[in-house]
Write a structure and sequence with these properties.
The chain has about 190 residues and is an alpha/beta fold. The chain is about 25% helix and about 20% strand. It is built from 4 helices and 6 strands. It starts with 6 loop residues before the first strand and ends with a strand.
């Protein structure tokens, strides 16, 4: 790897509640699993770090509509909905980042976590990011990674949008590109 940038893979919120049948399902959200698994396998085989972020909400939080927020109840700690998609590779070398532990929205995997510190300690210069959802948690993770000075490859075929409004996904992709992310088909 001499001369190559040290890189890490960040798999964003590929959880049951964000996949078809979940409490806050993203259309075709489960389609991100296969391309992400391919990358997880490649990164692990090369000894490169892999992180999986997850929403890890309390039962009652201002993030949920019932308590003043915008979203239905989803990804409540220690529930089936908060678990990673069952087909997503699990491995003892994958680091799990839990976000949304309080009343804040925490869309980014960097929000209220030590992800940036872990990446710095590992000497990471470039992150590859995919997962759910393009227009919220993926976008915010990508933008925060760029703000922290990391090079970012956003995995266009390994993300899907919520699309509260038609076009939100494409708008998010433009925002990521305009901020300096390299969009990559994997």
């Amino acid at each position: 790897m001499s001369g190559e940038k040290k890189r890490a893979l960040i798999v964003v919120d590929v959880q049951n509640d964000f996949c078809p049948g979940g409490a806050l399902a993203v259309a075709q959200g489960d389609e991100v699993v296969a391309p992400l698994n391919k990358l997880i396998d490649e990164f692990l085989k090369r000894g490169e770090p892999v992180f999986k972020s997850r929403d890890w909400h309390l039962e009652k939080t201002k993030h949920f509509a019932a308590y003043g927020g915008a979203w239905p109840v989803h990804c409540v700690q220690n529930t089936k909905g908060a678990e990673f998609h069952p087909a997503l590779i699990d491995d003892m070398h994958i680091r799990v980042i839990s976000k949304g532990l309080g009343d804040e929205d925490s869309y980014s995997a960097f929000d209220g976590t030590d992800l940036e510190l872990q990446l710095r300690r590992l000497g990471i210069e470039e992150v590859w990011v995919g997962g759910l959802a393009t227009d919220y948690c993926v976008k915010n993770t990508v933008l925060d990674a760029l703000k922290e000075g990391f090079r970012v490859k956003a995995l266009k075929n390994a993300m899907r949008p919520v699309e509260l409004k038609p076009g939100d996904g494409e708008q998010a992709i433009r925002e990521m590109e305009n901020a300096g992310a390299e969009m990559q088909e994997q």
